[in-house]
Amino acid sequence: MSSSRAAESLAPYDYPQETREQYAKVQYANLEALDISKMEQPEGKAALAKQVLSFINTNGFFLVTGRGFPDEEIRRPYALCRDVFELPLDERRKFACDTAKGDFRGYKERANDKDIVEMYNIPKFTPEHDRPHPQLVLDHLAETKDFSLRIHNKLLLPLLRLFAHVLELEDEDFFVRRHRYEAEGLEYLRYMKYHPRPAVTDAAEFGNIWTPGHSDYNTLTFLFHQPVASLQVQTPPEGAWRHVRSRPDAVVNIADALEFFSGGYLKSTIHRVVRPPPDQADRPRLSLIYFARPEAKVALRPVDSPLLRRLGLQSQTEEFTREVTAEEWARARIAKDHKFRVGEVKTREGQIIAGVSQKFYD
User: Fold this and answer.
1) How far is the C-alpha of 231 from the C-alpha of 53, rounded, in Å?
2) Which domains does the chain have, with CATH numbers?
3) DSSP class per residue in 22-65
4) Of 8, 50, 167, 292, which is most buried with the most CB atoms under 10 A?
5) 242: helix, strand or coil
6) How far apart are the C-alpha atoms of 56 and 64, rounded to whole Å?
7) Helix axis angle, 157-166 relative to 44-55, nearest 10°?
């Protein structure tokens, strides 16, 4: 299909209306904004690093500005996200991911009536991820590739250089060289759809929690504008849950890999998804997410950092019993979640790999 015909094939996407609930009922976290365009200015990197050090362990989510995507560049993938989940279920199932083997590439359907989440994951555009997709996805694959590469190059790489500066590494590209797009790895773009439950069922059986409090298992997660007020972050030290207000700028959270790399100094953000306010709770919630992850063979161990040495954090807070790579960690967590989702195990928590366990926070 030509690019012009592909463009015509997607109906425009309109964001849901913001909730009208009062602030007292929907309490929002105060998120810092990092203007990464300052990375190119004299002393800009130092100013941004100071800003990161002032907030990073009190609010795991932050906004990224200065590399904004035009609104249409966000609405387009949301339109595709919407239409993918409107394909017939039998068609979606042809592209099912193998979560039992720790593989999230492709379509993940709802396992049962209690599982309200379905996903379609498009891995990065490298040879090892060459795989079939629905024709709808293939028709828009070029623009999806462009969107993914923009996130990687314009958002991820400047932030990786910034965190290297925060940790006082002499090599500014230390993390960049461990996140090469062309290298083997499990980086991907996710389309996600939450199907609301009846209000009585949600409250009585699930405590209005759609996804329990957890950390992500990659490096950085990029979330794009979604006004449905469901995403919450756990704010230290009291552990209170606060809603994350969506903004046109990308919302970013630190994930497990950066916590391992920093010996526990940069905390993986604890977050969850809850039932939205009543004026938003009667329709599905879509999410557009990009998971940046280290290359497959990169070991998850603390970097040699002057900052970490001064703080006594040169070894991990929770150590693996053997060396674990980024791919091993990701696949083990996916497979562990699969076993709970399909009823093979009765508890979400337990050992993931090499002596390190998964935790949930509700």
Assistant:
1) 24
2) 3-358 (2.60.120.330)
3) -TTTSPBP---EEEGGGGGSTTHHHHHHHHHHHHTTT-SEEEEE
4) 292
5) strand
6) 13
7) 80
Whether 198 and 230 have beta carbons less than 8 Å apart is answered as no
Nearest to 106 by CA among 98, 340, 335: 98
End-to-end, the C-alpha distance of the chain in Å comes to 47
The answer to whether 39 and 134 are in contact (CB under 8 A) is no
Q: Enumerate residues 6+ apart whose C-beta is below 8 A from 349.
A: 357, 358, 359, 360
Q: What is the pTM of this model?
A: 0.94
For 269-323, the pLDDT digits (tens) are 999 999 999 999 999 999 999 999 999 999 999 999 999 999 888 665 557 889 9
Burial of 125 (0-12, 13-18, 19+ CB in 10 A): middle
- Of the candidates 348, 262, 274, the one whose C-alpha atom is nearest the C-alpha of residue 300 is 262
| 3 state DSSP class of 306 | helix
Residue listed under structure tokens 């998850």: 300
Letter for the amino acid at 118?
A: E
Helix (H) or strand (E) holding 231: strand 231-235
- CA quadruple 276, 279, 281, 283: dihedral sign: negative
Do 39 and 158 contact (CB within 8 A), yes or no? yes
Fill in the DSSP letter of residue 151. Answer: I
Contacts of 140 (CB under 8 A, 6+ apart): 6, 10, 80
Measured CA to CA, the distance from residue 345 to residue 13 in angstroms comes to 39
Render pLDDT for 165-218 as a digit per residue (tens, 0 to 9).
Answer: 999 999 999 999 999 999 999 999 999 999 999 999 999 999 999 999 999 999
Amino acid at 9: S
* Backbone angles phi and psi of 122, in degrees to 5: -110, 110
